[in-house]
Amino acid sequence: MKRILSFLLLAFMATTLTLSAQSAADKIVGLYHVVKDGRNSKVKIFKYGDGYRAQVVWLENMKNPDGSQRTDQKNPDPKKRNTPSNQIVLVEKVTFDGDDTWENGHIYDPTSGKVYRVEMYFDKPNVLTVKGKLGPFFKRVYWQKIQ
User: Fold this and answer.
1) Rounded to whole angstroms, how far apart are CA atoms 129 and 48?
2) Taking the model in full, what pTM does it have?
3) Residue 81: partners with Cβ closer than 8 Å, 6 or more residues away
4) Are the C-beta atoms of residues 60 and 86 closer than 8 Å to each other?
5) Which residues, 6+ apart, have CB-to-CB distance to 53 below 8 Å?
6) Alpha carbon distance 104, 94 (integer Å)
7) Per residue, what are the HEC states of 4-45?
8) Domain 28-145 carries which CATH code?
9) 45 vs 21, which has greater pLDDT?
10) pLDDT digits (tens, 9 = 90+) for 91-137
11) Which end of the chain is least crowded, N or C, by CB within 10 Å?
12) Cβ pair 31, 145 in contact under 8 A
């Protein structure tokens, strides 16, 4: 009987620890307001595969001067250059490191067409710091969580 109780207690503790780590990792999930180079957008972060992905869902100005839909013209992958601007994937494959940081993925800058390593963390409760890195150089942007 003691063995069964011990096993049940260990199973309960393992489940609780797993759920706690999972909920901490999912803290990043949500909708964010992003301002970059004076342009407003909304970005959604969601679970994707073994990590998380961030995708544009809204832009302040989604049309070209001629009225056509803006697309991802600077993407290094020619197959993705016709992706509408409100569907561009910005961050891929970030994973939670267990210490309030999401990393090991990459971030795409659609204004330049370049891809960088990325690290993401919360300095303030609803402000996600997104740090694009290239060697020893980096640039930070701040995404305000709105949902």
Assistant:
1) 20
2) 0.82
3) 71, 72, 73, 74, 75
4) no
5) 45, 46, 47, 89, 91, 92, 93, 94
6) 5
7) HHHHHHHHHHHHHHHHHHHHHHHHHCEEEEEEECCEEEEEEE
8) 2.40.128.520
9) 45
10) 999 999 988 999 999 999 999 999 999 999 998 999 999 999 999 99
11) N
12) yes
Q: How many residues does the chain have?
A: 147
Identify the burial level of 69 via C-beta atoms within 10 angstroms of its C-beta, where 0-12 means exposed, 13-18 middle and 19 or more buried: exposed
Q: Token pair of 33, please?
A: 């307001």
> Side chain identity at 10, as an amino acid letter?
L
Q: Which two three-digit tokens encode residue 29?
A: 């999930």
Spatial contact of 111 and 37, defined as CB atoms under 8 Å apart = yes
d(CA 101, CA 21): 12
Amino acid at 18: T
Residue linked to tokens 């990792």: 25
Distance separating alpha carbons of residues 23 and 35, to the nearest angstrom: 27
